[in-house]
User: What shape does this take?
Amino acid sequence: MNTPGFKLLARSIFGAVRLGEEVIDVNGEPGHTASGLRLSDDLVLSFVDETGHDTFHDAAHPVFGWAGCAMTLSDYTSVANAWSDMKAGYFAGVRVMHAADLRRPTIEQLGALETFFRTQPFSRFAAVTRRDARIEPPVLNTLAGATAKQLEEVLRWLPFSRVATIFEAGAVWDEKVARMFGPMEVICDGKRLPVEKYRMAKTLAEPGLEIADFVANAVGGSARERSVSRKDFRAVFDVDGRRTSVIRIESALVVTDR
Assistant: This one.
């Protein structure tokens, strides 16, 4: 399906090779990955996933929001390798990691996840709300704008002149995301830069999307319980303050120019 403003990445960012190795795209052009995403030293990659349902229909989890991770391309090489090594060492046989699927993790698995999130050099951002929040419609637009703002906050501390944001691909959901986020921009050296937007199936097991899934799960649980003392939330966000930006919206008034 063609989603306006989004490019579909049909393969994982680095194709079938291990991160850090030379990759050539299908046209044989250096500097591109097998997926078609152009790589450059000035690129920051961000990955975004949602938590909850946009209709707030789940009484047990009455929240919705977007969350993700961001890092320079050079950092992504090491972060993604560390994630893959952790999966191989502690989650053998799990091809695609979903935080919600970890029903009975072992102490060793929880420790490995906590160590990863506390030590790896990537930024984390999120915007989330609850069903009982007082937000003027359209709620999703407000959340999308807040998510983009949280991303912009963590980018302040990263060197870049290009930003690529990758969302999970999901059929009808793609169209909603396209409408909510629209043309994304971030500020770099006082100038507004367009954000390159992509979508990718989570079945490709891209480390960045899997990491974003865990960030979103931690934020969703924290919003559901109205608590920042949850262990998973602390593990994800109790790091260098420059690497985190998260907001839970309880009330918002939409003001438009007339």
